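Here we describe the complex-level prediction in full. Unlike the single-chain runs in Section 2.1, the two entities below were treated as one system.
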Amino acid sequence: MITVALAKGALLKDTVRRFAEAGLDFSAVLEPGNRLLMVPSACGQARALLVRNADVPVYVSYGQAQLGVVGYDVLREHALPVAQLVDLGFGGCRMSVAVKASSPYRRAADLPAHCRIASKFTRCAEEFFDALDLPVELIHLAGSVELGPITGMSEAIVDLVATGRTLAENGLIAIEDLFHSTARLVGHPLSLRLDDGRLQGIVDRLAAASQVGASTGAA
Amino acid sequence: MITVALAKGALLKDTVRRFAEAGLDFSAVLEPGNRLLMVPSACGQARALLVRNADVPVYVSYGQAQLGVVGYDVLREHALPVAQLVDLGFGGCRMSVAVKASSPYRRAADLPAHCRIASKFTRCAEEFFDALDLPVELIHLAGSVELGPITGMSEAIVDLVATGRTLAENGLIAIEDLFHSTARLVGHPLSLRLDDGRLQGIVDRLAAASQVGASTGAA
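The structure predicted for the assembly as a whole is:
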């Protein structure tokens, strides 16, 4: 039985559509009344684990799921031993430094040394400011990072920006990008090595479907 | 202006009710259409920050909120420098070790050395198993911790248990409690020290309301 860890939330709908194109129908996970965390595929040959974003690489690194789909941002932040297999192309967003629109800062390097940076992605933020040689104090928040600059707790934030609407609503602007993120297919290295061809078949079909998605501009 | 950090989610309704009894009306945060993260009290003398559970002690420790309400479980897990002021009595639950009902383990000490424990509260779990002198491998999950034993990734979990319904639905049973948790009023130590009496007035009224709540058995 092949187990696939799928991230609840923004990536789920596109993920299910892409797997359907590759021959695995997990559409049951999208049914409004679904409360199951472990959902069999329509063919009965595979199952989906419905988990939080950050937990996808955990289940895949322990081999409880042989495959998983999760944002590149999560892979960067948690740095667990999983194999990155396919850039699925959808779920595009940027990891950005943002400040109050009324502040004088227009590049990350403008920020004062030892200023405070609030983020859900403190590891990504730490790497970025280390590379800039700018010492900062990182404040880990679990959500609503915009409140950092609004309340005056931090000079800036590092957060995912998709449309920029949340930033604008809170009087913030993005001033610099750390990286661009999209949904990635990841795999358990040992399972891929011991694969009898079935996993590779799914990977190949998802790669082909992602090529088509990319060349037609569909996300 | 007094700022109070309130945890979104299960504690919010009781928190707002208790603050109303103490003279601060934050009922606007409960309005279904509310999207604001910073909500003024009806009297205009205070404001509420609506944040995630884990972020309440962050805002209070940095003094961005002078007071906050959050579960004891979060205070134990994050161990930030805030003053615990009042046990508000509601939001009762236990931090428990749970295993598959079909497993042979009936006490935490029965678990095999080097077994895996999945938890959102890995610091609490680490302290508990350290005190038992039982070496375990901790796996941090962001949600749906029940999947740890179900998928076979972990022998046990450490998680909050309120009614026990989620455990039962997933074929798990609690075998030992780490501690009991309730909602706590916390404060920013320096703000309390520099207080002109207004903060202490709120603390005293919340303490009095909590006494009444406790003695009449209301939660």
